[in-house]
Amino acid sequence: MILRNGLTGTASRPVTEAETARAVGSGDLPVCATPVLSAVMEEAACAAVAGCLPRGTTSVGISIALRHTSPTLVGRTVTARAELVETEGRLLTFHITASDEAGEVGSALHVRCLVESAPFLEKAEKKYRK
After folding, report:
1. How far apart are CA 129 and CA 120, in angstroms?
2. Local structure of 114: helix, strand or coil
3. Scanning 6, 19, 23, 86, which has the fewest C-beta atoms within 10 Å of its C-beta?
């Protein structure tokens, strides 16, 4: 499959106590934490292009503009749907919506960058060597 606008992917996660704002430190309520919602959204973006990347290539998230518009209670499931809306060189831009059983809970514009896995990890490890 070839990278092209219109590719879609989904990801879902049940909200447990471990995924709440209280548990991850992003608030004090027992509802889905915004960082958890962000992770589900990124997972959906990865799923959209999973079968399209050359061997040894992956994508890394470089920005996300997220609006978390409605809470999701523990025991409910958050589902994100990502659509690839723009490709420019190594940059992939996704529009993502998220919902739970009661309706939409958020949206995001997310950019990922294509990288070669081995050199990327080597660069990360080299950063810590003296």
Report:
1. 15
2. strand
3. 6
Burial 63-89 (b: 16+ CB within 10 A, else e): ebebebeeebeeeeebbbbbbbeeeee
Q: Distance (Å, rounded) from C-alpha 78 to C-alpha 106?
A: 10
d(CA 7, CA 15): 26
Q: CB–CB of 84/94 below 8 Å?
A: yes
For 55, residues 6+ apart whose C-beta sits below 8 A from its C-beta are: none
**pTM higher than 0.90:** yes
pLDDT tens figures, 76-122: 999 999 999 999 999 999 999 999 999 999 999 999 999 999 999 99
Give the SS3 label for residue 84.
strand
